[in-house]
Each structure stands twice: as C-alpha cells, then as structure tokens.
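Record format v2
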Amino acid sequence: LSTEELPIGVFDSGMGGLTVLKELCQRLPDEDFIYLGDTARLPYGTKSPQTVHKYSMQAADKLMQMKVKALVIACNTAASFSLDKLATAYHPTPVYGVIEPGAEKACEKVDASGILVLATEGTVSGAAYQRSILSKNPEARIYARACPLWVTLAEQRQQDDHITWNLIEYYLQGFIENGPKTVLLGCTHFPLFSPMIREVLGEAYTVVDSAITTANHVANELELKGLLNSNGGEISFMATDGLGRFSSIGEQFLNTKIVNVSEVDL
Amino acid sequence: LSTEELPIGVFDSGMGGLTVLKELCQRLPDEDFIYLGDTARLPYGTKSPQTVHKYSMQAADKLMQMKVKALVIACNTAASFSLDKLATAYHPTPVYGVIEPGAEKACEKVDASGILVLATEGTVSGAAYQRSILSKNPEARIYARACPLWVTLAEQRQQDDHITWNLIEYYLQGFIENGPKTVLLGCTHFPLFSPMIREVLGEAYTVVDSAITTANHVANELELKGLLNSNGGEISFMATDGLGRFSSIGEQFLNTKIVNVSEVDL
C-alpha cells in the first residue's frame, strides 16, 4: 500500500472519541479508519497526567504497529497531556489532537464576554485549552468548568429526558444570561448533548464542537500533505474490554451500527 | 509479628471502599489496616468480569506480598466477580467480600414486598446479590437497579444539594410508595447518600448498608478464628494514581483526614 492508502488511526479512552470518528467519516468518506477505545481503563478524565500519558502512549504504539498514515487523539484529556510527546515520538507520522482546532475556532468567534470551556476534570485542571486560547488571543477571558456527570450520563444506556435536562442546566448555572457567549465543548462525550446545550443557552451563544473542528482540521492537513485516499471507506474497531458494551453504547456516539470489534490488550 | 498482629488488607477500585474501611475501623479500632485503591483503573463497575478479576487479583497479590492476616474486597463489583477465586487462591488466609454480609442482613429484614438492590452496572448484571439472596431465601422477590450517576456524584468535589436530591430521586423512581421495603446499598459509594435515600424512601423502608454489615461480619469471623489484634490502630494507604485526588475525595468517604498515601504500580 502507498502511504495515502493506509488507514488513519484514532484512539480514545473509550466510546467518546466515536463522536470525533463520526465527524471524520462524514468529512473524509473515502478514508479507512482504525478506532481503538481503551475501555479497560476508561475514563481518562479523572486520572493523572502521568497515567494518562502512559495509557495514550500504549494506545498510540498499538495503532502505529498496525501501520497508519496519521494518528488522531480523539480524547481531550489525552490530547491535552500527550499531543506534543506523541508528535515527537512518531515524527514524521502526523499526530492530531482535539484541543488546537477547538481553541482556534473559539478564538475566531470570541467577543468581549469570553470563552467557556466545558470539559473533564483532567482537561480543565491541565489547562491546555486555556494555554492554547491565550497563545492565539492573549486578551481572551476564559472560564472553565468540569462536568463529570455528563460523561457518565452520556454512557448510560437510556437517557431520561428529565434528568438529562436537569444535569445540562446544572453545569451551565451561572453562565446563562450573563456568561461568556462562546462555549467550547472540550470533551468528546459532550456533542451528544449539543442540541440541549444550545437550547438551554439560547441563540445569543455560539457552541463550538471540538469533534467537528478536529475533523475539518485533519481533512485540511491531510490534503495539504497530499495524503488523502480516494479508495477507502472501511472502519475497523478495537477495544481493550467489554466489546458488547462498547458497541451498544458506542452506537449512540457514532450514530451508526458498530460491528466487528476486536479485543486487544495494551 | 504473630499472625494476629498482622494488618488487614482492604482493596477497592478507588475511593468507594473507604466507606467499608471507615466501618471496619469503628468496629475494630485496635487493628492495623492497609488500604489499596486502584485509582489508575477505576471504576470497576462498568468493566467486564474478566478484566475486573484480573485487576482484583493484582491488587490482592500486592496486599498478600505485604503480609496481611486477612483480605477484604471492599468493592461490590470485585467481590461479585472474584471472591470465590481469591478465597481459593489465598487459602488459608481468609478473604471476605461485601456481598454475602449485605445479602444476609437483607434476608433477615425482607417481607413479602421484596428486596431492591442498588448497585453498579457490573454488580447488577453479574447478579451475585440475586444469587446470594436466593440461596438464603428462594422465595424472595428481588429487584435490582444500576445507579451509575451516583458513583460519579459521590466522587465530585462538591455536592450540590439540588442536583444530588434530583439524582437520588431519579434512580428510586418506580420504587417509592409501592416498592420493595428492604433496600440494599450494593455499592461502596452509596453509604454517602444513605441519609438522603432514607429520607426519600420514608420510614416504612429498611436500608441495609453493606459497608456496615461487612465490618460486623469481618469482626465476628476474626474473633471466631482468634485473629483479633489488641495493639494496633494504624492505617496506611496505597493508590495506583492521583494521590492528591485520592486523599481529597477519599476524606468524604472515610470521614477523616488521609495522610501518607504511597503510590504503587500493579
């Protein structure tokens, strides 16, 4: 296979990164993808930078062994702790994270009211979004809130309308009406709630979905590098635990059936 | 050291088991304890039986290497998948789980309305409580509900009253008024919400806390075996990741300061 024909490797702590894969498939329908979810150790969002980095390196190694032309870190926590190190380790294979593209889009949209980053504990305290936004716009007012219950909520088998609305409003408390008008979804689970978040916030707000911005970024970069494929379109899945749960919950994120998942050990 | 003077080893996927340790310390103030929380891989409640068993075995091995006189599996999911195998593997060192003592107490209390087991996804689908209850009372009507958001809620740094009440009521829906009158808290995180659960359910309900029943069971068994210590009272802590988070969140579970946590790798 020539380099262009190789698949793109995508990894995440579990199912959340499937929202990024969904956007990648829509933007790049002729590419092959291999998705790896580290379900045996999810979530990454509450773990330390050292541990998340160790896990990310193991997931990335596994994908590199399978020969991929590019790597996408489809997990905000992992991207925030490991992008630079993985990019150095696998050079010249390009490695893309979800932080930069989201931060860039938010900076295009921002006004004086500022930017609100909604993410996991790890992503908020690691402050990668904050650094990335400030490097592009040193004047930006940045707020960040960890929304841990949204992660669990997204992975519940059934979403009850009443409690979902309560939890959406709960983490947006204090930011409605007078809050920053640009809201960045800095966790791959959160696009599932994007319509509800938009409805709670109202029309004056811009919601930036880092899954969409990442897919656009990866597509543009691969085109620039002459690495686009026109003969693919296959997706294969690997998970480190619970293949049945991965498929059934993952389908809510990917919005299509998940078949042929293989189990791997990292 | 004579066998009686050795510490009791206690392990859990993370902080939840500290509710069991709290009851153990209250019931057995003169014992030494070593607590191990596998924070690098928490939670266990959404993982497969095979993976949970692998992790439990590694945690138990670590404690056995440190010379303990007894092991307590202070995690319902781990106890439900691994108690029998660990008891066989470490015989004659006694291994205690949290399932049997809770099931026994619930069977003492049960009436015709039945028993409601509140637990993690893994504990509910593994059905160890259901089997244990039926082995003692084949006529018992058993209901079980997975409450995944309670686990995340218990590990949030701040508990907002309004959303906590909403989430307590959410998983009890359908069981208030006409539900089973014996309610078994089958996850070590849930004692944190025990007062609220009792208030939502009302006085006609009996809430069985498996942390308390386990502490009583372990105390009785060690006494029967002549393994009680009268010179101890020290607790040491180990965690596999995020020592700061372990201490700060763990204090809510243990209800006392956590100092001197060491990091271990499993």
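The CA atoms of residues 18 and 147 of chain B lie 19 Å apart.
The mean pLDDT of chain B is 95.
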